[in-house]
TrEMBL record:
GO molecular function: oxidoreductase activity
Matching SUPFAM superfamilies: NAD(P)-binding Rossmann-fold domains
Keyword tags: NADP, Oxidoreductase
Organism taxonomic ancestry: Eukaryota, Fungi, Dikarya, Basidiomycota, Agaricomycotina
The protein's name in its UniProt record: Uncharacterized protein
Residues in the signal sequence: none
Gene3D superfamilies associated with the record: NAD(P)-binding Rossmann-like Domain
PANTHER family, A to Z: 7-ALPHA-HYDROXYSTEROID DEHYDROGENASE (PTHR43618), SHORT CHAIN DEHYDROGENASE_REDUCTASE FAMILY (AFU_ORTHOLOGUE AFUA_7G04540) (PTHR43618:SF4)
Gene source species: Panaeolus cyanescens
Domain of life from the UniProt record: Eukaryota
Length: 298
C-alpha cells in the first residue's frame, strides 16, 4: 500500500458517501451531522420538527459547503419511516451510512439518589414511591424511541445499505447506533427506564451485527455509548462543575468535563470510514473515563 493511503485525509474521507442521521438537527445528532458533512458525505437529517431541520441544513450548507437534506420522519411511526426510506430510495437508490441517534429521556424517580429522601426510608416506602411516580405509558413511549426505533429504522433501510456496499470492494455500508453509558452501568441514575432502554439498544447492536453477518449481508453494525455531552436532553452548555451532577455516578468523571462535538463526530467518522472498516459488532464508550470508575457490565 502506498503511504498516501494511510493519511487521515484518505482513510477518513467520506466523499461520495450518502448518510442518514436520525435526530440529526440538534444535540449529539447535529455534532454527528457536522462531522459526516465535513468529511465529505451527503447527509440526510431526519426528525419530527421540519423547521429545525431546514434551519440546520441551510446553516451547514453555508458554513461547510455541504449537502444536507432535511427529511421529516418520526422514528416511532412505521409509515413515517417508510416515507423517509422512499425519499432516499428515489433520490439515491442506496445508502452507505445510517446513524440511529434519535432518542429522549423519560420516566424518573428523582429521589433515588438522595439517601435522606423520605421515599427511601424503607423497602415498602421506596417501592411504593417508585411504583407511583412512573407510568407504564411513559415506559412504552421511551422504549419506542430509544430501542424499538433502532429495529424498525435499521430493517427499513437494510436493503439500501446493502446496495451501497456494492460501490466499492471491502468498503461496506455501516450502521451506528448511539446508545449511552447509562446502558452499561449498574446504577440507575434516577431513571431505570432510560438506562434499561439504552441497554436494549446496546444488545440490539450486537444482535443485528451477528444476524446480518450470518446472513452474509455486507453491512457493519456498531454502537457508540456517549458519556456526558451537551444536548437537548442535558444542557446547552455544561460546566465542569455540572458534569458529575448530570452523570450521577458513584465516582466523579476523571476527565472532569463534558465530551466535545469533535470527539463525538470523530468517533462516528472512524466507524463509518475506511479507518473503521474492519470493526463490526462493537460498542465504543466515549465518556472521559466515567465507566472506568463506576460499576458497569463491561
Amino acid at each position: 500500500m502506498p503511504l498516501a493511503s494511510y493519511r487521515p485525509q484518505a482513510i477518513s474521507d467520506l466523499s461520495g458517501r450518502i448518510a442518514l442521521v436520525t435526530g440529526g438537527g440538534t444535540g449529539i445528532g447535529l455534532m454527528i451531522t457536522k462531522g459526516l458533512a465535513a468529511a465529505g458525505a451527503k447527509v440526510y437529517i431526519t426528525g419530527r420538527r421540519l423547521d429545525v431541520l431546514q434551519k440546520v441544513s441551510t446553516t451547514l450548507a453555508s458554513d461547510l459547503g455541504a449537502e444536507i437534506i432535511p427529511v421529516q420522519m418520526d422514528v416511532t411511526d412505521k409509515d413515517s419511516i417508510q416515507k423517509g426510506k422512499q425519499i432516499v430510495a428515489e433520490k439515491e437508490g442506496k445508502l452507505h451510512i445510517l446513524v440511529n441517534n434519535a432518542g429522549q429521556v423519560g420516566p424518573t424517580s428523582p429521589f433515588l439518589n438522595n439517601p435522606d429522601a423520605p421515599q427511601n426510608k424503607d423497602a415498602e416506602t421506596m417501592g411504593n414511591a417508585m411504583f407511583n411516580s412512573e407510568s407504564v405509558e411513559g415506559w412504552k413511549d421511551l422504549y419506542a424511541i430509544n430501542s424499538a426505533s433502532i429495529f424498525f429504522v435499521t430493517t427499513a433501510f437494510l436493503g439500501l445499505l446493502a446496495k451501497g456496499s456494492e460501490d466499492e470492494v471491502n468498503n461496506w455500508s455501516s450502521v451506528v447506533n448511539i446508545t449511552s453509558i447509562s446502558g452499561v452501568i449498574k446504577v440507575a441514575q434516577d431513571h431505570f427506564c432510560y438506562n434499561s432502554a439504552k441497554a436494549a439498544a446496546s444488545h440490539l447492536t450486537k444482535m443485528f451485527a451477528t444476524e446480518i453477518a450470518l446472513k452474509k449481508i455486507p453491512v457493519r453494525v456498531n454502537a457508540i455509548a456517549p458519556g456526558v455531552y451537551e444536548s437537548e436532553m442535558t444542557f446547552d452548555e455544561i460546566t465542569p462543575e455540572m458534569v458529575d451532577k448530570i452523570g450521577k455516578g458513584v465516582m466523579s468523571t476523571p476527565a472532569r468535563r463534558p465530551g466535545t462535538g469533535e470527539e463525538m463526530a470523530g468517533t462516528v467518522v472512524y466507524l463509518v470510514s475506511k479507518a473503521g472498516g474492519f470493526t463490526n459488532g462493537q460498542e465504543i464508550i466515549i465518556d472521559g473515563g466515567y465507566v472506568a470508575v463506576n460499576p458497569s457490565v463491561v
